[in-house]
Amino acid sequence: MATAFKECPMSNQAPFHARSAEDVLREFEVDPARGLSNEKVHSARETFGPNELDRAKRRSVWQILIEQFKSVVIIIMGLAAIAALVTAQWTEAIAILAVVIVNAAIGFFAEYKAARSMEALRKLGARQTVVRRAGKEQEVETVDLVPGDILVLKEGSLIPADARIIETNNLRVTEAALTGESVPANKTTEAVDAEAPLAERLSLLFKGTSIADGEAVAVVVATGTETELGRISQLTNEAESNTAPLQERLDQLGRRLAYITIGVAIVVAISGLIAGRETMLMIETSIALGVAAIPEGLPIVATIALARGMWLMSKRNALVNRLTAVETLGATRVIFTDKTGTLTENKMQLHTLASCDDDMHLGEEETPGSSEFTETSKRIIRISVLCNGASLGSDENKSDSGDPTELALLQAGRNHGLDRDELLKEMPEEQVIDFDTDTMMMATYHRKDNQYYVAVKGAPQRVVDSSTSFIGNDESVYDLDDPTREHWNRRVDQLAAEGLRVLAVAEKQVDSPEAEAYENLCLVGLVGLLDPPRREVRDSIHRCQSAGIRVLMVTGDQPTTGQAIGKAVGIGDRQEALAMHGSDLRSPEEMSEEQQQRVIDTAVFARVSPEQKLDLVDFYQKRGEPVAMTGDGVNDTPALKKADIGIAMGKRGTEAAKQTADMILQDDSFETIVAAVEQGRIIFGNIRKSVVFMLCTNVAEILAVTVASLAGLPLPLRPLQILYLNVVTDVFPALALGIGRGQANVMDNPPRKPDEAVLTKHLWTGIVGWSIVVASFVMTALMVALMVLGYEQSQAITVSFMTLGFAKLFFVLNLRDPGASRFNNDITKNGWLWTAVGLCVVLLIVAVYLPGLSTVLNTAPPTPLGWATILALAAAPAIIGLFVPPMRFHGQSMKEAEASTSDS
Questions:
Q1: Are 616 and 639 in contact (CB under 8 A)?
Q2: DSSP helix/strand/coil, 734
Q3: Distance between CA 407 and CA 423 in Å, rounded?
Q4: pTM score, two decimals?
Q5: Whole-number mean pLDDT of the chain?
Q6: What is the C-alpha separation between 152 and 219, in angstroms, rounded?
Q7: Helical segments of 394-552, H only
């Protein structure tokens, strides 16, 4: 744990970004040329502590193991095992404990592997940095930095602490991890407004960001937890993560089953004793029935179903941290997604060329020979390629280098036959004036015949203001008067409203390379660049919308950019796709009803701070809607933790985001999220089927034994026979149901209600109804064996025992999805299920004929007529099921949900 820092000396003054560099240096009493003395460094370290953040706790082996025993169902099973041990029911105790141990082992190894895999993905940051101390430059450990240190930073440097810039040379900083802004920020030494949002504090450098271009000298103003990164880390630690929905539902079911267990045991014990049965027999039967009320296979089924989901997701490039995370995403009603890299390609491309009155939208099919590719278009691209400081890679293992915007312009030139190297052979470069934050422009001089050609690009307003003429659509040169300037400025605003990053290009001829670059320019046109949407994203978002899931964008970019991308990918198709600036957001408690409605109507949230992301998650959670949050930056970590499921990006995600998230997308693709949603829904539906299967037959056991006990009839099942059926023959079909492929159209259903239990009233009704049916045929089998076939009691109980065992196997056919064919559905096509049924048939037969086992279970072989009775009565519930509407495991379809909403 990092030492808590004391406040820096500026606590009663304006923030550092709003003060001059000289004022800040005076504050820390440091000479920028010499840096701090060794004595001052030592004193500051004593005051402020080490420059490090609180480290995230690593999940230990013991923590992962203990978590496997926190389920209510597991606790109840443990108590049942203790009761069996106290009453010397050794076989029952061993059987129950074996189930508990197997479940814990499966869950432990699945989560242990996932946890260690995720740790391997997390990358450590830089360890050293260059500072000026005691009059010389030296490398020091970043942990040893103190406020007042003078940093010397170059291109590629990772910024080790928050610092106020005092010198800069064409400095641009990549701050996406902290601010969410996809384009590097142009930094300056000038003070900015005290109320400026984080992304606009251009005089500050922030810990965890990096230098994209240029150089800087800066004075450290905050270290460790006092930095912006540290503040976000504290927000993350304070954010409360929610219990996974599946765990909540299983615990609710476990508590309900606990009441059933106690009630059943008491009723059967009292009724049996009143009927004059043996006391020890009734104690054994009560324990067995209490265990029968609990689906012992449920923890194993749920664990294996989720573990298989983890495995399937890893095949789809999603690494899951906890077993319940996949299912949690299946319950999600709102997905907050970032823009850059998730919805977009994270690679700038030239999108539009704009001359005075024409726009040309570029696609892969356009070439210099295209009819639409005018001479003006070629000239705009030529200037963009010549006036460029980046370099494209080649086949000789040379990688791209430079600003993403300039790389996009070079690539566009290469695509259209205007390669920079070839152009420079014709027009050698004589001089370069680098982009400057004061002029907001760049220029290059090229020798052409006996003159020099000047190519200029930069901020549209600056280029337009520096131009005195422009190229018309007829290639003629016209004077640039004030009305025409306004026309060009409107063109810039139009392109910016489409979410494009706009640059202007201009040219002129001069006699000398010493001539002023930015005077009397001839404006040629505008270029609009865009980080294009991923091709598959629109379909994925429409799938979410069809499944009743709202997809909302949270971005650090400007509202116009976010809104344009949102419309392009389909976010907001069913509404106005309103964009809201982060400054307009409030905490849920501070919002009026009108403000809350505005948030609900908004599809794009732009310039959002970490606190505001927390407020958004909290807002929807308080509305009862499970929330998934994607993110890649440090600024996303509080919301990733607060959300019901946090999803980090694997390619561009920061270490902090990966540590906090429940799931890592190794391909950064939104399509993978949709696949996880589908898998989560399938898993929950499969677990429901498994629970219904186990409870239908388990409750049938309870009803049959209870009725027989109250009626004074022989018990149709002995205690060990009940345990044999529940622990041995139940588990395999339930497992097969748990790993089935699921309903094909599961994404056509809305998300289940946030407060919906594992077993709905509809399913409980089905369980009770089918339990009565199965119990009736079990009791019928017992009576036929005693009164028609004339079997002695042990042989008659074997008939009822076998009838229930085979009825369980036939009953799985009743678990098809609504609307599915009776004979061609997800049940009949589940190969694992038929394997499980075959295995259980063998286990049932050996229970009767295998010496030793038959003695323990007290079974006697039936005659051929007895077997015919068993099979006929066991198949009866399945035959009835062909003519009864199947139970619904995935809730209403979207059409039914919309119809019920309109009716209400």
A1: yes
A2: helix
A3: 16
A4: 0.70
A5: 82
A6: 9
A7: 404-415, 420-426, 460-466, 482-497, 537-546
Residues ≥6 apart with Cβ < 8 Å to 481:
none
Consecutive H or E run containing 671 = helix 670-711
Name the CA dihedral angle for 254, 258, 263, 264, rounded to a multiple of 10 degrees: 70
Reply yes or no on whether the pLDDT at 40 is more than 90: yes
Enter the tokens of residue 793.
């009691």
Residue 831 to residue 169: CA distance in whole angstroms = 67
Return the structure tokens found at 700: 């049938």
**Which burial class, exposed, middle or buried, applies to 29 when counting CB atoms under 10 A from its CB (0-12, 13-18, 19+)?**
exposed
% helix, strand, coil for the chain, step of 5: 50, 15, 35
Backbone angles phi, psi at 810, to 5 degrees: -70, -30
What token pair was written down for 358?
A: 């024409």
Q: Is 397 exposed, middle or buried (0-12, 13-18, 19+ CB in 10 A)?
A: exposed
Tens digits of residue pLDDT in 465-507: 999 999 987 888 999 999 999 999 999 988 888 888 899 999 9
Residue ranges of alpha helices (H) inside 439-516 are: 460-466, 482-497
Dihedral (C-alpha) 716, 719, 724, 725: value to the nearest 10 degrees? 40
DSSP H or E stretch at residue 380: helix 375-386
Q: What order of strands is seen across the sheet that includes strand 578-581?
A: 318-320, 663-665, 645-649, 627-631, 334-337, 550-555, 602-606, 578-581
H or E segment to which residue 108 belongs: helix 90-121
Q: Are 343 and 337 in contact (CB under 8 A)?
A: yes
Q: Which two tokens stand for residue 837?
A: 């049924």
CATH of 354-528, one of 3.30.360.10, 3.40.1110.10, 3.20.20.70, 3.30.70.2750: 3.40.1110.10
As a whole number of angstroms, the distance between CA 855 and CA 93 comes to 19
The pair of structure tokens assigned to 441 is 């422009």
Q: What pLDDT does residue 567 have? A: 86
CATH superfamily, with its number, for domain 327-345+534-668:
HAD superfamily/HAD-like (3.40.50.1000)
How many alpha carbons fall within 13 Å on the CB side of residue 325? 31
What is the number of helices (H) and of strands (E) in the chain?
31, 24
pLDDT at position 222 over 80: yes
714 SS3 class: coil
Closest CA to 531 of 338, 348, 340: 348
Angle between helices 761-783 and 670-711 (to 10 degrees): 40
Structural domain spans, the chain: 297-305+683-904, 327-345+534-668, 354-528
The pLDDT-based confidence of 76 (bands split at 50, 70, 90) is low
Structure tokens at 406: 């300039």
Burial per residue of 365-377, b for 16 or more beta-carbon CB atoms within 10 angstroms, e otherwise:
ebeeeeeebbebb
Q: In whole angstroms, how far apart are CA 369 and each of 111, 374, 570?
A: 58, 9, 34
The residues annotated with a catalytic role in the active site are: 338
Helix H or strand E encompassing 73 = helix 72-86
Query: CA 185 from chain center: how many Å?
Result: 27
The CATH number for 297-305+683-904, chosen from 3.40.640.10, 3.40.30.10, 1.10.357.140, 1.20.1110.10, is: 1.20.1110.10
Indicate the DSSP class of residue 534: P
Average pLDDT over every residue of 127-146: 91
Cβ–Cβ < 8 Å for 648, 657: yes
Tell me how far apart the 2 most distant CA atoms of the chain are, in Å: 121
Residue 197: predicted pLDDT: 81
Is residue 604 within a helix (H) or strand (E), and if so which, with residue range? strand 602-606
